[in-house]
Design brief:
By secondary structure, the protein is mainly alpha-helical. It is built from 2 helices and no strands. It has one domain. The chain is rod-shaped.
Length: 89
């Protein structure tokens, strides 16, 4: 009988705890950050044209990396984590 009472008391106290519910929150990422970075198409006829094409690609890469950093900052803020260096938060 003692065992039954102990088990019954444990079950009662275990079921009285408040239920924990998980709520997932989707952070708002602006549409501007979710669009690809365009790179103009150019014909490479001379070495100077190749230099211009490389410059276009380097600029597009810089913009794309900036978008990735901005999205990372938004997600870190949503997770309530410490922002990395470069986040304007």
């Amino acid at each position: 009988m003692r065992r039954f009472l102990m088990i019954f008391a444990l079950c009662l106290t275990a079921s009285c705890a408040p239920k924990t519910e998980i709520e997932y929150i989707t952070p708002d990422v602006p549409a501007e950050l979710r669009t690809p970075v365009p790179v103009p198409k150019r014909k490479a006829e001379t070495l100077a044209d190749v230099g211009v094409i490389l410059t276009d690609h380097v600029e597009a890469l810089g913009k794309a990396n900036g978008k990735i950093v901005a999205i990372d900052c938004i997600l870190l803020d949503a997770e309530n984590a410490e922002p990395k260096d470069g986040c304007p938060l």
